[in-house]
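hi!! sorry for the late reply, been swamped w classes. u asked for the two structures so here they r. pasted raw, havent cleaned anything up. first the sequence of the first protein and right below it the tokens
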Amino acid sequence: MNVSCRVRYVHVYRGRREDVNLQIGSYAKRTTLFTDALERGNISLQIKNVTLADQGRYRCFIPKINTNMNDAVVQLLKIV
């Protein structure tokens, strides 16, 4: 891995808008953040048209949340 590479993300939402410049290309137009639910504490991200290539660990990071837990890890698995 080239450490000089920019960090890329499945989805970036900051400043009350999405930032597609940092998004991994294969996730373009496949992710939806339910922004209307954010003020109720619901931070749900939908990934559409999921493929085997999407399998793996996903980290959700919320830097400005007022709690000790500002991130979580989700494992996406293939179920047979």
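now the second protein. again sequence first, tokens right under
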Amino acid sequence: PAIGHARRMQVATPAMQHAVMIEAVENHMPEVIIIDEIGTELEAQAARTIAERGVQLIGTAHGNTLENLIMNPTLSDLVGGIQTVTLGDEEARRRHTQKSILERKAPPTFDIVVEIMDYYKVTVHPNVIDAVDAVLHQQPVQAELRWMDEKGEIKREEVIAPSNSTLNCSHMPYSFNNISCTSFALCPYHGCPLSNAAQRFT
């Protein structure tokens, strides 16, 4: 009863989830698709296809923070993907950085990322482009912390997370594919209650 008039698509095997995602768009003309546990490159590709067709997309993946997703070679394309760029000497001096830097490769599939920190606490990144670029440039990341107090009221606070100085090219030994809106949640544990979280914090 919790899903109302929504249609639930059965996935026979986890390996076929990407095909079911595309089938849902092609055969049912949905306004919104909710996907639990995007976990493979094919599913990430399907998510981009769905978003580019104008369907609102809500999805989850395992991880603790946005940086976890950026560092994941399978799922990083959900937030635009990563590529290594070599700067000229003059540009590197102007930026006060090393010559090889990490840059976002494409527009993200999802516009918003929600880090589920606790059952009653989330961190919201309302602009994924700005957040990802800040992480890659090792700059502070602006976000919004939301939580439910003992009275059941939703509280909000603007927060600034420090940059991660360990995020650099030496930690990215992967070959990233060029796969490049919508909202997204990172679930730190199995069986994340996405629907409950959405009801609590929207």
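hope this helps!! also noticed smth abt the second:
The first strand starts at residue 32 and ends at 35.
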